[in-house]
Amino acid sequence: DDVTGLIVDAKNGRFAVDPADLEVGAKLRLHGAYGMDEVERIAGLIDETSSVLVVGSHIGSLVIPIAKMCSKVVA
User: Fold this and answer.
1) pLDDT for 35-63, tens place per residue?
2) Longest CA span, the chain
3) In the chain, where are the structural domains located?
4) How far, in Å, are 9, 39, 64, 74 from residue 15 at the CA level?
């Protein structure tokens, strides 16, 4: 296979996804979102002045939407 990445426009944002990723990447490709329940829960805990630490951010499917809601993210 010559495909090394796919650009996916999802509810979470735009991502370069490995076609072999059968978890997060597959959900982004097939369902157009990943982890939005978690993002919504976190949104209820933070505001535009918050600093957020994300451990294990993978390709950023949770970090990207969270970053739009707070002042600082470390991932």
Assistant:
1) 999 999 999 999 999 999 999 999 999 99
2) 45
3) 6-74
4) 7, 16, 10, 18
